[in-house]
Write a structure and sequence with these properties.
Chain lengths: 444, 315
């Protein structure tokens, strides 16, 4: 009786063990769907290619991709956190991720990076570190961008300006240097007189020398940030800083100069005129000869009906500076398939996928190899985009996108303040110290 | 055997009786008819509304536990200049929107009644109202663009300077009001037209015999007898006007320029989506908006004596 009982128990246990392992086996093969979202339409094709390659190598994982416009994108992610159906993996932005960290919605991938021995040195220096806070890591870098100048080749030629001037032009907040002279020479009124001439009629401009991309809000990424940084100014006291310097006289002078392009000199469309269709539309209609653009916009500008060239930003008192920004892929804490999500993030940041993205020539991937591929593709197309890469490679030529808490609040305050300065409602000197005080009070 | 039969018989009888009792009882039947919409109303309006009031006394980001903070969110609102600004902007919007829209709609309704009213014409008037707000917003964004918009080309052609419209802090709110007037006037006109149709023709004939001219007829007959419909139109359109959001969200960037189009609903939206999911302040602002609307509506209903029609006196 006793013996048979033992036998029965042994049998039962081994049977259940067998069943358990069988379940375990099928679980490993069970199809898993990872939802992945991004906001840039242009990047959809190369990342779809990455997803196809990834799915071929991992038959049990299906990647479901979705693209949404910038505003809907962040609303979807925020509401997804709350309702419990946010995407497993999503493209993250430096302006947004600190809030998600504060809300504890991102997976700390540092242990996984260490476990899998990932080599983070394949990326441009500093890119991977943007996504860390106090030893935790919230994303793997996918691309980077710098700022350069896009110009209308025909309009420069018509004004007799050699684009080579962009290799040595200078800027300062007092008179704008040779950068301003070039803009003025390219601004032409109805009588064909340019803005350098005292007879220039600012009320009847037919072609502007430069079009600003709006007021720039809190980061001024494709607006004033490079100029302001070239005076030696910095946004705040470093990554995860808690003090902003929007009241610095160097920043105030830069912003006022930027606003005066339309308010005083009439060489740039006014803030009102820019409307909501914006810079690209004005540039592509031929109404403005030059603009600052981000490297992710190159393709969009090449779509113009005339030839477009790309040059470097002007050098300021402390050198030539561009904002350096990068995106990363993050995993949501609520994802039911974190291991598979990690595999996908790892693949997105891998040399293989970075090369695919680079070869599409849409953005500069985070890895050097990928970025070189991107440069090569465009060279083969006969487009010289070296201005953006040289800027990234230049020693001390870049500064980082401001990463701090309260991104949303700061953005609201600065959108309003910069708008009012560009509209001429307030001077930079009057408005910026007030805004800065309100911002710094957030960190108290 | 007999008892069993009897019992089952009476059972069947009573169950049939219950059904017919229910269908015969007007009160119960009435409740049954409103039950579906009552469930919907409770689930999607009453419960969230009550919850909002409760949330407004808490600090809550939806993801972690809510903390009771008493009146702190209301204090935040009172000391926030942007909140007061948003109330002022909303009121400006309503004042641009409602009088113009109602007058225009009344004019169209009168024309339809007096001059011509084909169902073709009525369909045309109602088409803008059928378009989704987002489509309307995008459409006008292109039409009104300062440099590339067709409307500015038109203005220039007739010798008027190009206008920035939503690009200017002074013109943003009137422009958005204009767009919504375009969208809603036709619908409002149809409602008022239906109201005009209920006024007995005999009254006008009698007035004519008494020598009343068109204006007097309008003042003494049309307006007073249109009152209940007018009250309905005003109450609903003022409530809708205070809650303007989508057109603002589509046509301006971050409630710009310089915060000039930050209406109250946009302020509430910002508290959740542009900040760190500030549910407490967002719901507190919603409660304030509710109180404002409730007051405005009560005053209107009182003033218009909306529940009564003068036609009752006439008949």
């Amino acid at each position: 009786m006793n013996k048979s009982k033992i036998v029965r128990i042994v049998l039962l246990v081994s049977l259940s063990l067998l069943m358990f392992s069988a379940v375990g086996l099928t679980q490993a093969q069970e199809p898993v769907t990872i939802e992945y979202v991004l906001w840039d339409t242009n990047q959809l094709p190369p990342y779809q290619q990455c997803a196809d390659d990834f799915m071929a190598a991992n038959p049990n994982i299906t990647i479901e991709m979705e693209q949404l416009g910038w505003n809907d994108y962040w609303a979807l992610i925020t509401t997804g956190f709350v309702s419990g159906d946010a995407p497993d993996v999503f493209t993250n932005h430096l302006a947004k991720y600190p809030e998600f960290v504060a809300l504890e919605q991102l997976v700390d991938i540092q242990p996984l990076v260490e476990r899998d021995g990932l080599d983070l040195s394949i990326y441009y220096p500093g890119l991977a570190d943007l996504w860390t806070r106090e030893g935790r890591r919230f994303g793997l870098p996918k691309d980077w961008d710098t700022i350069g100048v896009a110009y209308n080749v025909e309009e420069l030629a018509a004004a007799g300006i050699d684009p080579a001037i962009m290799d040595e032009w200078t800027w300062n907040p007092e008179d704008g240097g040779t950068f301003y002279e070039t803009i003025a020479a390219l601004t032409i009124d109805a009588n064909g007189v340019n803005a350098l001439d005292p007879n220039f009629d600012a009320a009847n401009v037919t072609q502007y020398g430069f079009v600003r991309n709006g007021s720039g809000g809190f980061a001024g990424q494709t607006q004033w940030s490079g100029l302001a940084a070239s005076t030696g100014w910095t946004f705040n006291n470093g990554i995860w800083g808690n003090e902003y310097y929007y009241d610095d006289p160097r920043f105030i002078d830069t912003v006022q100069w930027w606003a005066d392009l339309s308010l005083v000199h009439g060489v740039s469309p006014s803030q009102e005129e820019q409307g909501s269709l914006g810079t690209t539309a004005l540039f592509q209609s031929g109404s403005a000869a030059m603009s600052f653009i981000g490297s992710w916009q190159i393709g969009e500008y090449l779509g113009s009906e005339f030839e477009v060239g790309f040059g470097r930003l002007p050098a300021g008192p402390e050198g030539r500076m561009s904002m350096f920004n990068g995106l990363a892929d993050s995993i949501w804490v609520g994802s039911p398939h974190q291991e598979e999500a990690w595999e996908w993030v790892k693949y997105l940041a891998s040399p293989a996928c970075q090369l695919v993205v680079g070869q599409s020539g849409v953005v500069f991937p985070a890895s050097r190899e990928g970025a070189e591929a991107s440069l090569q593709v465009r060279e083969d197309m006969g487009v010289d985009v070296s201005a953006f890469v040289e800027q990234a490679d230049e020693e001390g030529g870049t500064f980082l996108f401001p990463i701090t808490d309260f991104g949303g609040e700061i953005s609201t305050i600065m959108n309003e303040t910069m708008d009012s300065i560009m509209l001429g409602q307030q001077t930079a000197e009057a408005a910026l110290p007030v805004a800065n005080e309100e911002i710094n009070a957030l960190f108290q | 055997m007999a008892t069993t039969l009897n019992a089952s018989g009476s059972g069947a009888k009573s169950s049939g009786g219950l059904l017919s009792k229910i269908t015969n009882n007007q009160v119960i039947l009435g409740y049954l008819f409103i039950l579906p919409s009552f469930i919907g109303f409770s689930l999607f309006f009453a419960v969230p509304a009550i919850r909002s009031v409760i949330i407004s006394f808490h600090q809550w980001n939806l993801l972690s536990d809510a903390q009771f903070v008493g009146l702190e969110n209301y204090q935040t609102l009172i000391s926030d200049a942007r909140f007061w600004d948003s109330l002022r902007i909303t009121l400006t919007y309503v004042l641009w929107n409602i009088p113009l829209q109602t007058l225009l709609a009344l004019g169209i309704a009168l024309l339809m009644e007096r001059v011509h009213n084909s169902s073709f014409l009525r369909s045309i008037f109602i088409i803008p109202w059928l378009l989704p707000n987002v489509v309307v917003g995008l459409l006008f964004l292109w039409i009104l663009d300062p440099t590339l918009g067709i409307f500015n080309n038109f203005l220039q052609a007739i010798g008027i300077e190009r206008q920035p419209f939503v690009g200017s802090p002074d013109q943003a709110i009137p422009t958005i009001a204009g767009v919504n007037i375009w969208r809603h006037t036709g619908y409002t006109a149809i409602l008022l037209f239906a109201g005009l149709k209920t006024i007995p023709k005999g009254l006008y004939e009698a007035a004519q015999i008494d020598g009343a001219n068109g204006w007097v007829q309008f003042r003494r007959i049309t307006l007073p007898l249109l009152r209940p419909v007018l009250a309905f139109v005003l109450v609903t359109s003022i409530i809708g006007s205070f809650q303007v959001f989508d057109t603002v969200s589509i046509m301006t960037r971050s409630a710009g320029p310089a915060g000039a189009s930050r209406v109250i609903i946009y302020y509430i939206y910002e508290q959740v989506f542009a900040r760190r999911i500030n549910m407490g302040v967002a719901t507190a602002a919603s409660v304030v908006l509710f109180l404002i609307l409730a007051t405005v509506t009560l005053i209107q209903i009182r003033y218009f004596r909306a529940g009564r029609s003068d036609l009752a006196d006439y008949s």
